[in-house]
Specification:
4-stranded antiparallel sheet; mainly beta; about 120 residues; about 50% strand
Length: about 120
């Protein structure tokens, strides 16, 4: 059974930075991609960023492009999300997800097989 575990998050001020990390374990040899989604109170879960596992491809939501960077370490089955120039609207629970489906781009919840429990990011104004 694949497990996906997030770490990092916390509280930051507007304009500040935070880094999230995610580790996948158990049956990870066939991972085709990993991604970050977020869900703010009262809103749907939305795509943030994704990285293809066996090609140097990344994808970002327009709202975070130029501010967030997703990076991966294939050998460790980890992916991180560096978040710079944070805004109050970035406040949400951030979820890491992994997929074996091989789709690209992969921006919807249905594109991912395994999910972490989420980590809170709060940006104060």
């Amino acid at each position: 059974q694949v497990q996906v575990v997030e770490s990092g998050g916390g509280l930051a001020q507007t304009g500040g930075s935070l880094r999230l990390s995610c580790a996948a374990s158990g049956g990870t040899s066939s991972i085709s991609g990993m991604a970050w989604f977020r869900q703010a109170p009262g809103k749907d879960r939305e795509f943030v960023a994704a990285a293809m596992w066996r090609a140097p491809l990344t994808d970002y939501a327009d709202a975070v492009k130029g501010r967030f960077t997703i990076s991966k370490v294939n050998a460790e089955n980890t992916v991180s999300l560096q978040m710079n120039n944070l805004k109050p609207e970035d406040t949400a629970v951030y979820y890491c997800a992994a997929t074996y489906l091989g789709r690209w781009p992969a921006r919807t919840r249905n594109d991912y097989d395994y999910w972490g429990q989420g980590t809170q990011v709060t940006v104060s104004s």
